[in-house]
Amino acid sequence: MADMVVGKDKCGEQRLVSLPLSRIRVIMKSSPEVSSINQEALVLTAKATELFVQYLATYSYRHGSGKEKKALTYSDLSNTAEESETFQFLADILPKKILASKYLKMLKEKREEEEEENNNDETDDDEAES
């Protein structure tokens, strides 16, 4: 079950962190530069992550087709990552979905282009030797 941290902020209101802190700790410790993690840093990282995910979801919902369907879809998220400069760093993590047949066709075309380039390079080398 997810770790829940309940604390009080400066105003005395309760705040809740709903992401599992144990997982966040594991992710943070996976970095070789990190030896120990302060509990406060862990909670703040969790809260910042929650706010980031909320902002990404809200932005994607407002700028995507999900508004019409009243649902947030993967394609909304991937379009946001691809089109928004703010979220451009997520483009590799949230790629657009394509059919396997289209992907295989793209791979075949890429191989053919590389073979043509290699053949042209060999032809150029042969002509240079003559």
Automatic annotation (TrEMBL):
GO MF annotation terms: DNA binding; nucleotidyltransferase activity; protein heterodimerization activity
Ranges of Acidic residues composition bias in the record: 112-130
Gene that encodes it: CHRAC1
Protein name: Chromatin accessibility complex protein 1
Annotated Gene Ontology cellular component terms: CHRAC; nucleus; pericentric heterochromatin
Keyword hit for Nucleotide-binding: no
Subunit structure: Heterodimer with POLE3; binds to DNA. Component of the CHRAC ISWI chromatin remodeling complex at least composed of SMARCA5/SNF2H, BAZ1A/ACF1, CHRAC1 and POLE3; the complex preferentially binds DNA through the CHRAC1-POLE3 heterodimer and possesses ATP-dependent nucleosome-remodeling activity. Within the complex, the heterodimer with POLE3 interacts with SMARCA5/SNF2H; the interaction is direct and enhances nucleosome sliding activity by the SMARCA5/SNF2H and BAZ1A/ACF1 interaction. Within the complex, the heterodimer with POLE3 interacts with BAZ1A/ACF1; the interactions are direct.
Origin: domain of life: Eukaryota
Region called Disordered, residue ranges: 109-130
Signal peptide span: none
Positions of the Transcription factor CBF/NF-Y/archaeal histone domain: 18-78
Biological process terms in GO annotation: chromatin remodeling; DNA-templated DNA replication; nucleosome assembly; regulation of DNA replication
Principal subcellular localisation of the protein: nucleus
Record localization: Nucleus
Gene3D superfamilies assigned: Histone, subunit A (1.10.20.10)
Stored Pfam families: CBFD_NFYB_HMF
